Structure formats: C-alpha cells, structure tokens
Amino acid sequence: MSTQTMISLNPKAAKFISSPKNLFINGQFVEAVSGKRFETINPANGQVITTVAEGDKEDINRAVAAARKAFDEGPWPRMKPAERAKILLKFADLVEENVEELAHLDTLDYGQPVGLTTAFASSVIELFRYYAGWATKITGQTIPVSLPGEIFNYTRREAIGVCGQISPWNAPVSVAAMKLAAPLSVGNTIVLKPAEQTPLSALRLAELIQEAGFPDGVVNIVPGFGPTAGAALTQHPDVDKITFTGSTAVGKEIMRSAAGNLKKVTLELGGKSPHIICADADYESALANAANAILFNSGQVCFAGSRLFVEKKIYDNFVSDLIDYTKNYKLGNGFDPSTTLGPLVSEKQKNRVLNYLNIGQQEGAEMLTGGNATSSELADGYYVKPTLLANVRNNMTVAQEEIFGPVVCAMMFDDLDEVIKVANATEYGLGAGICTTDLRKAHKVAHALRTGNVWVNTYNLMDPASPFGGYKQSGLGRENGSASIDTYTQIKSVWIDLN
Ligand code: NAI
Ligand code: MG
C-alpha cells in the first residue's frame, strides 16, 4: 500500500470530521442530554475519526416529540404533493453535488473502496428522485358498493405518522436513504438512528436536509447504541411505525417492543443465500458471479451468496478456479485505488467471522483458502482474506448461520430438484442466485426457491423501482418500489350517504 497513490480525502469530508458531531433534532445540531460522546473508528487502521454525541432515551424522547409535532401540526403532511416533491428533488441535487464527500465519509467509517462507496452514495440520488415522483401519484379508489340507497364510498391513502428508522453499518449512506426517501415522499416524519459503527454520512445527510428546506422536526437523526437509543425508539408510544435493517435476533426483539402500541413493522434481516452453479453455465461469467456474490462489500451483505452449490461435473475445477479468481482481489485501505476488498467494519465483526472459521473446521469443513489477513501492512485494520470452506454439509453451523464476511461455503450437487430442497433448507429466505444457460432451469429454480430475490446469471442487483425484502426469517414486508408506498401509507375508507 504505497501512500503516494492514495486518493486524497475530500476537503469537505476532512472539514466535516475535524469537529465533533452532534445529534440532529428539530432542525438543530445538539449535544446529547447526558453529555456523553462516543468514538467512531476507521476499520482500515483502528484509528478514531472523530467523536459523536451519544443519543439515549432522553434524546429519543426529544426527537420523537419534534417528529410528532411536525406530523400533527406542521406543514409537511399537509403540503401540496408537488411542493413536497420539489424539496425531495432539491435534496437529491444536493446529494449529487456532495457525492464524493459522502462516499469518503463512508470509506473512512466502514472501510470499503471509494468506488463502491461512490456507487452507494450515488444510489441515494436516484432513490430520492424516484420517490419524489411518487409524491404526486398517491391516489385512492372510488368503490361501487352494493348497499341499498345511494352510497358513495371512496378511499384515501394517508401517511402513517412518526416513523422510527434503524439502519445498519453495512451500506451506511444508502440504507439510511432507504429509511428516508419513501416515508418522506408520502408525508411521514422521521427519527432515524444510524448504526453506532457508521454515524458520519447520516449526519452529513442531516446538513443537506437542513439545506434542502425540509421543515424542522420532519427528519431527526440520533446516533447512539442499539440497546439504549434503538430500544427507546422501538418502545416509544408516540412512534407509529418502525423500519429496521439488521440482524434477525434484534428484529425479533423489535417486534416484541413494537407490540406495546402496535407499531407497524417492516424488517429487513439476515440471510444465508444459496447460489447455484449449473454445469451448463457460461463458465467464466459464473466464476466472476460466484466471487462477486460473496466478496461484494467484503461479504457484509444480507443477501451475500454464502452457500455455493456447484454441479458435480464441474465442482472440482470450479472450486479450484474460484480460489485462483479470488487471489485477484486486493485487500487494503479503501482510499488506495488498487483496493478491491476493504476491511470488515470492526474488530468485533472480524473476530465473529474468524470464530465461524474455527467452528466450521471443527465441524469438518476444510478451509482451502483465506482466513485472517496477517501481512504487516494490514495488521492495524480488521481484514479477512477471501475464504472458501469446502466439504461443507448444509446442516453445519457455517451453512446455517449468517457469517457476514468474505466466506463462502462450497457444496456439490448432482440433481436440480435435490439442490432446490437443500437450498431451501434454512431459516432464511432473502436472496438466491442461479447460473445456467438453460431458461427452463432458470425459471424453475427462481420459482421454487423461497426467497424474496432471485438473480439469474447476475447477483447483487437492486433498483429503487423493484421491491426488496425477505421470506421466512429474513424479514417482514418490502422496501422500494410501490411496496414502500403501501408500507408507509394507510388506507381510509370514507362513506357518504347521498340520499
Ligand atoms: P444489529 O442487528 O445489532 O445492529 C443493526 C442496527 O440495530 C444498529 O443500528 C444497532 O444499533 C441497532 N440495534 C441493536 N440492538 C437493538 C435493539 N435492542 N433495539 C433497537 N435497535 C437495536 O447487528 P450488529 O450487531 O451490528 O451485527 C451483528 C450481525 O447482524 C452481523 O454479523 C450480521 O449477521 C447481522 N447484520 C445484518 C444486517 C443486514 O443487512 N441484514 C446488517 C447488520 C448486521
Ligand atoms: Mg466507523
């Protein structure tokens, strides 16, 4: 890693991190009530980037009160839809002007290469433009009811109210944006709690929210920890809806706390996604696809293709060629332009991943490549090499639990019906992939897998217009597309006696 070639830190990002960061409540940047602060760490070198005010219950209370007032009394839900759209579009323009800064803040905060964080930051622009379009297209129905007399019945789609949004660290700016764009487009107000590992880009979005002209209290952003700030938000009686992306264990906890006032709940949780490589696939592109499915974002992806099923006829060659292919990835600091694989987000996440490698080997899996990155130039960061476990059986811990790192479990199959059964034998159901040149196989498998997303001869694709979410314990509800409009509105039926 030669320092001359490093991409230099965007000057606005440098300025942003040069001062301590605060909570964004009711249009103001404020200290936490407790005065507490926490450090946010750069996982490429373990160094502190800056400190951030640590939100807790009192701060969540203030943020919810601001969001409640903005919803119950403020202009946002009452505004002409075209006016709301204009503010969303202005915000998208501001994000576009500041893409490099946002990307650099995410690379600092969670380590991934600037190319990738730039793509994530750019996706925010498209997402806001997409939902700005929805603002003026929310309609009800007139319904021909069969009651006696002349009765006129119609429906309205109305905003839900205060939305408590909890985002993870694995694509900080883009997942935070997914928690903002759709609910705002239809007139909701928001309290967002970003992940404690990656609060910076969300706080920069807060500044752009101020600049775009959202009324005070419409968006509040309160960094803090899960069991304190996060739990306070999910338990708060004035919050109408919770949307959460993160682990299945926390998702279940959130459902329990949401029961208090019957909050509407949307959950995007973990996965253990199967990726099926048929012998008839285009071999070279299947190799690239298999690598990309598990190594994208260093495997810290809820739909990572972490269970690789390879047809018997090509299994030995494919696995050995995949190992060679992954040797082309270059681990390193995300600001080094030659880096293609960043560190994991934290020391804790690295240890979690390495622990799974031990468990896998104890259960009989064979680690053919990968493991801890021990080279001296990576010693200060939280790096794990692209790892392939072979001799895996689908009932092993490593094939059932989400590892959330660059670790793929390879398994062999001989029969398509059999591999469909094994692929479905997991409590998760988020993503899946198949590589084949046979259209019949592609559609058959796509229909038979119990997952919310299936990619054929590709992987990792998402678009603001297409619904995203999980079957089984991978989640509840959908985000993106019209699905989010359904999620963030409720239907009112209005009856008029015309007699
Ligand atoms: P996590 O589920 O604890 O954290 C995600 C978010 O939830 C963070 O903002 C966190 O502060 C918040 N949170 C945690 N506990 C909470 C609670 N009791 N109430 C309300 N909010 C709470 O995930 P963590 O610990 O960061 O990662 C552990 C594992 O979770 C990963 O190894 C991965 O398997 C999975 N995960 C899955 C993600 C996904 O995209 N589906 C994203 C992040 C983690
Ligand atoms: Mg960080």
Write the CATH homologous superfamily of the largest domain.
Answer: Aldehyde Dehydrogenase, Chain A, domain 1
Class inferred from helices and paired strands: alpha/beta
The CATH topology of the largest domain is: Aldehyde Dehydrogenase, Chain A, domain 1
Q: Average pLDDT across residues?
A: 97
**Distance, first to last CA:** 81 Å
Bound molecules: 1,4-dihydronicotinamide adenine dinucleotide, magnesium ion
Per DSSP E runs of 2 or more residues, the count of β-strands stands at: 20
Largest sheet: 7 strands, mixed
Residue runs with pLDDT of under 50 for 5 or more positions: none
Strand line-up across the major sheet: 14-15-16-13-12-17-18
Number of helical regions: 17
Overall 3D shape: globular
Commentary on this structure:
With 499 residues, the chain is of the alpha/beta class. It has two domains: 287 residues, Aldehyde Dehydrogenase, Chain A, domain 1, CATH 3.40.605; 190 residues, 3-Layer(aba) Sandwich (Aldehyde Dehydrogenase, Chain A, domain 2). The chain contains 17 helices and 20 strands. It has a seven-stranded mixed β-sheet, with helices on both faces. Helix 1 packs across helix 4, helix 4 crosses helix 5 and helix 11 packs across helix 12. The protein starts with 10 loop residues before the first helix and ends with a strand. The model has no long low-confidence stretch (mean pLDDT 97). 1,4-dihydronicotinamide adenine dinucleotide binds next to helix 9 and helix 10.
